[in-house]
Every structure is written in C-alpha cells, then in structure tokens.
C-alpha cells in the first residue's frame, strides 16, 4: 500500500491521472515570481508553469485556457493594473474546478473575505517560511486547504464574532449607486480607487460609504465586505 501511495503521488507529479498540468503564477515582483516558480517546480517538476506580472497578462493566460484538467493558480492581490480578486472571479467562472490560492502580503479582513468570496480556495502569506509554504501547497495532494495559520485564526475569529450578523441578514435597501460602491469596497478597493472606477470624486464616494455604513449599521470594512458577499455583489 505504501508503494502504491508513492506511485500515485509520483504519477500526480509527472502529469498523469489527476496531475496538475497547468499552473499560473500571477505576481508582479520578479524575485518573488522566480521564488514561487522554483518552489512549485519542486512539487510538480513536469507541470506547465506560466508566469504573469499583471492583471492584463493574467487575463490573457485565462483566455487561452479551456475548462477541464487539473489547474493550480497562485494569485497575488496587489497588482500594478488592478486587483487579483478580479482574476479570481474570472477564473472561477471559466475554470470552476481550478484550485485558486492567494499568495499575498495582505492579511486584513477586507482582502481575505473579498478573495474567498470571489472563489479562492486557499490563502497564503508570502512572509511565511518558504518550507512552510511549500508544505502547505504539497498538502493539497492530500485534500488539505492551503491556509496560513494566522489567516485560519482570523477567519474563525471573524465568523465567530459576526455569527449573529450573518444569521440575521438584512432587508435594508440600497440605492443602485450605493450598491456599486458596496461592490467595489467589498472587492478590497480603496475609496479613491472606487471613486475612479465609478467616475466620481473621492468625496462623493466617501459620502456613499458613510450612507452605506449608516444604513447597514456596520462599523468596519470587514463587515462591509461580508455584506457585499452576502448580497452576491463580489
């Protein structure tokens, strides 16, 4: 049985059976991109690894893919031309079976919730020890979720604290423009970024956010992100 298990893992790494046949690394920092490439190459030596440095090139890679197969994507969130959350959402729509793991420095509730709501299946912090990250990615072959310990604790603590908020829901109506702002803030955009996306001034966007906070009776960006996800806006 031990020999069979080793053989199955070997087959997985070599590109047979349920092997990862295509890997996307979306990371704008060249040294980090090279580090992740080397790390993944150790786990999946025969995989087809694509390195992308921007949201645009990530979208171009996605456009060439077809549903099916075993695909792994490591996605950074802070990119020079947008948010990795947008690509996560697009990946989930086109490649529903892909394993999408966030690889980032952002550990705040807003980014974590936005990424998970968009369809991420794992969340790793790049400041972790390299061996620990490799072990968490390696553990996916055993069906484990690759999640940095601090992120796991944050998720548990957040949902424990907000359990009543989630269960209660809300029937509060928002205006179409408030929903637009809620959607963007829920995706992790800053006020200035949301304003630019909507073609309004930062002051106007801030006014909408103030109204959203008041109507929903929330006090943090994490609660706003959670409500955006609950309403299906992210």
TrEMBL record:
It comes from the Bacteria. SUPFAM superfamilies: C-terminal effector domain of the bipartite response regulators, CheY-like. GO terms for molecular function: DNA binding. The keyword Transcription applies. Residues 167-232 form the HTH luxR-type domain. Pfam families: GerE (PF00196), Response_reg (PF00072). Residues 22-141 form the Response regulatory domain. InterPro entries: CheY-like_superfamily, Sig_transdc_resp-reg_C-effctor, Sig_transdc_resp-reg_receiver, Tscrpt_reg_LuxR_C, WalR-like. The modification 4-aspartylphosphate is found at residue 76. The keyword Protein transport does not apply. Keywords: DNA-binding, Phosphoprotein, Transcription, Transcription regulation. GO terms for biological process: phosphorelay signal transduction system; regulation of DNA-templated transcription. This is Response regulator. The lineage of its organism: Bacteria, Pseudomonadati, Pseudomonadota, Alphaproteobacteria, Sphingomonadales.
């Amino acid at each position: 049985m031990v020999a069979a298990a080793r053989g199955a893992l070997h087959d997985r790494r070599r590109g047979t059976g349920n092997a990862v046949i295509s890997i996307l690394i979306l990371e704008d920092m060249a040294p980090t991109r090279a580090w992740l490439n080397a790390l993944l190459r150790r786990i999946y030596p025969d995989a087809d690894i694509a390195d992308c440095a921007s949201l645009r090139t990530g979208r171009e890679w996605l456009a060439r893919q077809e549903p099916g197969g075993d695909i792994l994507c490591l996605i950074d969130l802070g990119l020079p031309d947008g948010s990795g959350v947008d690509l996560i959402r697009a990946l989930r729509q086109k490649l529903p079976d892909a394993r999408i793991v966030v690889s980032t420095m952002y550990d705040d509730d807003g980014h974590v919730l936005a990424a998970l709501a968009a369809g991420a299946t794992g969340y790793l912090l790049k400041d972790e020890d390299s061996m620990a990250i490799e072990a968490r990615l390696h553990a996916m072959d055993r069906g484990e979720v690759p999640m940095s310990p601090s992120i796991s604790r944050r998720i548990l603590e957040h949902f424990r604290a907000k359990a009543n908020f989630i269960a209660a829901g809300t029937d509060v109506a928002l205006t179409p423009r408030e929903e637009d702002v809620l959607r963007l803030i829920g995706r992790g955009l800053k006020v200035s970024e949301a304003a630019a996306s909507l073609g309004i001034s930062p002051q106007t966007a801030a006014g909408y956010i103030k109204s959203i906070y008041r109507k929903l009776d929330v006090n943090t960006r994490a609660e706003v992100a959670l409500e955006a996800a609950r309403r299906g806006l992210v």
